Amino acid sequence: MLYEAIVEQLLQEMKEGKLRPGEKLPSIREAAEAFGCSRNTVIRAYGELEKRHRIYAVPQSGYYIVHRSPAGEDARGALEMPDVIDFQWAGPDRSAMPYRDFQHCMNEAIERYREDMFTYSEGQGLASLRLQLARHLRDLQVFTVPDRIYVVTGSQQALHLLVGLPFPNGKRNIVVEQPVHPGMVESLRGYGGKVHGISYEEGGMDLGRLEALFRDGDIKFFYTVSRFHNPTGYSHTNEARKRMVELANRYDVYIVEDDYMGDLDGDPRNDPMFAYDPSGKVIYVKSFSKVMLPGLRLGLAVLPDTLRESFLRAKAAADVHSPLLTQGALEVYLESGMFAAHIGRMREIYRRKAVVLQEAYRKHLPPGTAYTRSFSGFYTTIGLPAPLRAQAAADHLLQRGVLVDPAQRMYLPEFRQEDVLRLSVSQVEEGLIEPGIRAIGDGIRELLRQRTRVRFVNRE
């Protein structure tokens, strides 16, 4: 039996009520025997159902049916509730994506570069695109020349390459904010030098601690998300940015500044660290995935000349060059002014969502629950009240129709926290944000009541 047939059969049984919310599915072995197929076929079918949020996995236990909210059952509003309100996925708002505009840009790029598609492109990126990127970066207070811009296949590629490269300061160790996004954690896994963490909290970070690391830690570079941090949503103040650059220059440490969502910052008074760095100590990295189409897989890095040759060699070994067609389409999109208009719309959408989210937190989360006060419209975190744990809470909330992201994997081992959830509202419809947060608040209260009952029974 093909995996698609298994998926359809199980979906039909859920629809008919033969499989009910919270019910455990047969094990992989049992299902393979029942369907007369291989275990790999069942694994693929269960994986597909999990991607559709129709089932969920519990480690060392098995697969269970997700809670579904029947259409029209929510009396608190006319909005029809989906099967799952997804606060986990953090791509850009699908409803605001410029599909048609970008299709025109792709067609123009095919015409413009049709001959070039039969050859390998420049490893550093199309010269004409780098010219447009240099003009675009001026609006972000990043003043550089096209020759210092390197087009990369997503900003994560730049970060991964920089982790592995020797730096001109001859140092070996790395400092990263804690928590930090999972991609950076994976890039650091198995790194030969020492990786230091420094806590990034609502009031900023301990710059005295950072200075001590820079002074005594043999630090190659410090990785920071200066605006709209992932996962907390925090942004450094201009004063903190200036101080970090001063410390980097004093102790010969490079800063890798990840400004992946700088385009969404509508406050012209906020400057990137790059704006305070005349020496070349700040390496500026930026992505287009969170504000446009993640499928583009395009980003950029602004590098000092001293890293040019080693970076180009490492990139050539990774992928030869970034895709020519998407480079050309992005060039047309920037050149035409479409990108500027698109960003204006996105800022307004995310600003509204962030306001709704913060108000919903205030109204619906129970006492003892902490949350970050971020207005990026992308990431925030919830700190669960003791003794709740993030993974158990996420499993419980999924049964209530809400998908959230446990943040354990966003910490280095010595900083690991088990009580933090990451949420993103980037793809959640504005009208579903408050119902989703209400469900989270109710779920937290229910878990706390369960713990109270357990303690009471144990005392008896």
Keywords for this entry:
single chain; alpha/beta; Arc Repressor Mutant, subunit A; Aspartate Aminotransferase, domain 1; Aspartate Aminotransferase, domain 2; 3 domains; 7-stranded mixed β-sheet; 4-stranded antiparallel β-sheet; 42% helix
Report on the architecture of this protein.
This protein has a seven-stranded mixed sheet with strand order 4-10-9-8-7-5-6, with helices on both faces. The protein has a four-stranded antiparallel sheet with strand order 11-12-15-14, covered by helices on one side. It has a two-stranded antiparallel ribbon with strand order 1-2. It has three domains: 1-66, Winged helix-like DNA-binding domain superfamily/Winged helix DNA-binding domain (Arc Repressor Mutant, subunit A, Orthogonal Bundle); 73-87 and 340-460, Aspartate Aminotransferase, domain 1 (Alpha-Beta Complex); 98-336, Type I PLP-dependent aspartate aminotransferase-like (Major domain) (Aspartate Aminotransferase, domain 2, 3-Layer(aba) Sandwich). Helices cover 42% and strands 13% of the residues. It is globular. It has helices at 3-15, 28-35, 39-51, 99-113, 127-138, 155-164, 182-188, 207-216, 238-251, 308-319, 324-336, 338-364, 390-399, 430-459; strands at residues 55-58, 62-65, 85-86, 149-152, 173-178, 195-199, 219-224, 254-258, 282-287, 299-302, 370-371, 379-383, 402-403, 405-406, 420-424. It is α/β, with parallel strands linked by helices. The chain contains 14 helices and 15 strands.
